[in-house]
Specification:
Number of helices: 21
InterPro entries: unc-13_homologue (IPR008528)
Helix content: 40-55%
Radius of gyration: 25 Å
Number of strands: 2
Shape: elongated
Strand order of the largest sheet: 1-2
Order of helices and strands: HHHEEHHHHHHHHHHHHHHHHHH
Largest sheet: 2 strands, antiparallel
């Protein structure tokens, strides 16, 4: 595996590279989670919000109501950071032990020389990198924005002692903390304010956790505020009338439930597909910024911190397994299909999804599962139904993994989602045998048609169809 960080600074790398966490659109491979239609939020804006959520939930001192203090620790981080006692985010990334997560996925681990603090020269040791700093760089958030986010979290913690982060609507709290004078650039302030208002619109109006009622006065007021902000900018950072109206509307929408009872947590970023889009961005940050196909060695720790966003994003273990399967598969496809390790990892993760599919019949999960598996299966079958045209000496090693991935996706779709399968005895259906039989016959027919003269091809194909094959 390539090393996690090169000798050049992370910040310069971030400024010069194309963001690797940005999903790359591939023809014929749309997101199975759905698109954020009617949303004007860009990927960079979504990534910054995902980072804000990640930082906020990993501040144990905020969740528990403890105080926070600023500390400048130049030995552990290249930038100033908020520290809390025992905070996971501030632990330096120095571990060179083999990753249990990567081992479970069948992926190789880097050698100890690839540690971010190792160096070819003893006189110029590399800087240690905290987990928070790693996520900041991988999600493309500037140091300036990061500093502002952390200041806001300090103010929130000081002003709402004892209040858990899951009982807050983060974009609303951020709007409450800063005025225009807190920004040196008026355009930066306008972009920041607009992003937070747009996210409130997307999370509470366009893709809410609980469907909106047509007669909802709170949703009408919020729409009016957001639309009016373009003509008469909302004055943030104050407890004025407009901010009070915004807060009452947002909290009324966030604290809704399907049965009418008061929920324990508020809902503002856990509606489909918004939550999966944000979660996908967080998982994509587990890839090396320099090597697009390399998963960082510290993925075990990073994944545990990412999982803390579940309470905000409405994610569970089943959705995590499914989303991570897609991230691995999507990364393999979008990076030129050259690293078979990613394909093997996706196949290993899909085995967990297969177990999950048998344990639940939740209709919302089944819908996302079906969409994801159909996308994977469709991609695989384009290559397997005419595999003579797809595989050759240089890429033949990937064929076994693609067959395994396609067959497993088909089995889950048929055995755990299809109603037709449930109506028939299991002994009557052998999905793996049927799929492989289809791939062989289809590929041989295509090969015969390509190799035989046009006039002889139909008769040869018909003749072959009645023969046994090995």
């Amino acid at each position: 595996m390539a090393r996690l960080f090169r000798d050049k600074s992370l910040e310069s790398k971030k400024q010069t590279r194309t963001s690797l966490t940005e999903s790359i659109p591939i023809p014929g491979l749309p997101s199975p989670f759905g698109e954020l239609n009617n949303s004007s939020l860009s990927d960079s804006e979504l990534r910054e919000t995902a980072y804000e959520i990640f930082i906020s939930v990993n501040r144990s001192s905020i969740s528990c109501g403890k105080s926070l203090t600023f500390s400048n620790n130049n030995n552990n981080s290249p930038s100033s950071s908020v520290s809390s006692s025992g905070s996971s985010l501030q632990r330096s990334i120095t571990s060179t032990a083999a990753s249990k997560f990567k081992y479970a996925l069948g992926m190789k681990s880097s050698s100890s020389s690839d540690s971010p603090i190792s160096s070819t020269s003893t006189s110029t040791p590399k800087k240690r990198i905290s987990v928070g700093e790693l996520m900041r760089v991988h999600l493309g958030v500037s140091e300036h924005s990061d500093s502002r986010i952390r200041r806001a979290l300090l103010r929130i913690a000081a002003g709402q002692v004892g209040k858990c982060i899951e009982s807050m609507v983060l974009p609303l709290e951020l709007l409450q903390q800063f005025k225009s004078i807190d920004f040196s650039d008026p355009q930066e302030y306008e972009a920041w304010r607009t992003r937070n208002l747009k996210f409130l619109e997307v999370g509470l109006l366009l893709y809410p956790h609980v469907p909106l009622e047509k007669s909802s006065s709170a949703s009408l007021r919020l729409r009016q505020i957001i639309q009016g902000a373009s003509e008469r900018p909302l004055e943030t950072g104050k407890n004025n009338e407009s901010m009070q109206i915004l807060r009452s509307s947002v909290m009324a929408l966030a604290y809704r439930s399907s049965n009418g009872s008061m929920p324990e947590t508020c809902h503002w970023a856990d509606g489909f597909p918004l939550n999966l889009r944000l979660y996908q961005m967080l998982l994509e940050a587990c890839f090396d910024v320099n090597e697009q196909t390399v998963i960082i060695e510290e993925i075990d720790e990073v994944i545990e911190l990412i999982k803390k966003t579940w309470v905000i994003l409405g994610i569970n273990q089943l959705l995590h397994n499914l989303c991570f399967t897609w991230v691995l598969f999507h990364r393999y496809v979008t990076t030129g299909q050259v690293d078979n390790g990613l394909l093997l990892a996706a196949d290993s993760q899909l085995l967990e999804v297969a177990k999950d599919a048998k344990s639940t019949k939740d209709p919302a999960y089944s819908k996302i599962l079906s969409s994801t598996l159909s996308s994977i299966l469709g991609w695989a079958e384009k290559r397997l139904l005419a595999y003579h045209d797809t595989f050759y000496q240089e890429n033949i090693d990937s064929m076994e993994s693609i067959v395994s991935l396609g067959v497993l996706a088909a089995k889950i779709l048929v055995e755990d989602i299809s109603n037709e399968y449930r109506r028939r005895r299991k002994g009557e259906v052998d999905v793996a045998r049927d799929r492989i039989d289809t791939y062989i016959r289809s590929s041989l027919r295509t090969a015969f048609a390509q190799a035989s003269p046009q006039s002889d091809a139909p008769s040869l194909i018909r003749s072959w169809g009645h023969q046994e094959y090995i």
